[in-house]
Design brief:
About 20% of the residues lie in helices and about 45% in strands. It has about 350 residues and is α+β, with helices and mostly antiparallel strands. The strands form two sheets. Strands 4, 5, 6, 7, 8, 9, 10, 11, 12, 13 and 14 form an eleven-stranded antiparallel beta sheet that branches. A three-stranded mixed beta sheet has the order 2-1-3.
């Protein structure tokens, strides 16, 4: 017979305290459910110890991490020693906070099990794991560790996005063509980001017969070889836009009936590097892409109020994306305090 069972559970401190406490209890109950019927526990022998947040473990992990920069360690320890240990969550969005979330917090989400057997002569201990093939897997409800209420899910997503950063960007290559532009990029998952630029030009190039007027976007899904979205990346992009262009020739070209924008897509490659060190909010990225762009357009005589001369359809194959962009990571959201 088992004299006692000690189960200790803890959670990382970034969520609400009530949620962490519930997660720890659920982890303990999953262990007890698995042991039921496999061992006999003496009356009152199941002892639970729940620490929703094991602050001593957090301090130990921070001190023991040999790869953590000393500057990060000093910032974290100063928060833990401030009298309000939950203030460590205010580091979210900083380099020290990113290291804490990615490297330290996952190690705090633990459950430990200690079984004490009654010992007397001739006791035969049951073999819980005699044959690996015969071991029954622990079946855990997939929602066991999910947020317990819908009100928490939206802030959790926002907190995740804030840790990764939201980037604003301007493509410098478009500016000499008098094309104003602004892009937004978010990283919903490690190694992946979504970038959406908007381009607009409503002006002539110093002459009525030279222009590149457009309202367009080129959203792209990027795959980064680095999980923090730095360095080399590949992309798949779509192109959508209205256009009105003329090159000082005899004709001007405009999307058919002003309601048939260009629509196509392609793939590309690019590279991004920080400006001023890895912790800087500023960055520089460049890239090139190629794809296909079916076009259906009207042809006008290239004079002021020139009349319609005809229409045509073509499919363009070739370079459809080029950028040298300056990026800026905007400030992250404020974290919840417990």
């Amino acid at each position: 017979m088992v004299e006692s069972v000690l189960i200790t559970s803890s959670a990382s401190p970034e969520g609400p305290f009530s949620l962490n406490e519930e997660l720890a209890r659920n982890r303990q109950q999953a262990i007890l459910d698995y042991l039921e019927g496999k061992i006999t526990i003496a009356q009152e022998g199941a002892v639970r110890s729940t620490e929703a947040i094991d602050w001593d473990m957090l301090r130990t992990l921070v001190l023991a991490d040999s790869k953590m920069p000393q500057a990060y360690r000093d910032q974290i320890l100063s928060k833990l020693d401030s009298g309000d240990r939950t203030s460590v969550n205010t580091l979210r969005g900083t380099p020290a906070g990113k290291y804490l979330w990615d490297q330290i917090y996952p190690k705090m989400r633990t459950t430990s099990l200690v079984i004490v057997w009654e010992a007397w002569k001739g006791l035969e201990f049951p073999e819980l794991c005699y044959d690996e093939a015969e071991v029954e897997p622990v079946v855990v409800d997939e929602n066991l560790f999910a947020p317990l209420d819908a009100s928490y899910s939206a802030p959790a997503l926002m907190e995740h996005l804030s840790r990764r950063g939201v980037l604003l960007k301007i493509n410098a290559l478009a500016l000499p063509a008098l094309i104003a532009n602004l892009g937004v990029e978010v990283q919903p998952l490690p190694h992946f980001s979504i970038s959406v630029p908007i381009y607009y030009s409503g002006w002539n190039w110093f002459s009525e017969t030279i222009k590149f007027r457009t309202l367009a976007t080129q959203p792209e899904l990027r795959y980064w070889f680095d999980k923090d979205c730095q360095g080399l990346f590949l992309n798949a992009h779509a192109t959508f836009g209205w256009y009105n262009v003329a090159w000082n020739g005899d004709y001007r070209y405009q999307d058919y009936a002003q309601k048939t924008p260009a629509l196509g897509g392609g793939i590309g490659i690019g590279y991004k590097l920080p400006l001023g060190g890895k912790s800087s909010r500023w960055g520089l990225e460049c890239g090139l892409g190629a794809g296909v762009l079916p076009l259906h357009y009207d042809i006008y005589y290239n004079v002021q109020n020139g009349r319609l001369a005809g229409e045509d359809q073509k499919t363009y194959w070739g370079i459809d994306q080029a950028f040298v962009s300056v990026t800026y990571r905007i400030a992250s959201f404020k974290s919840k305090q417990k």
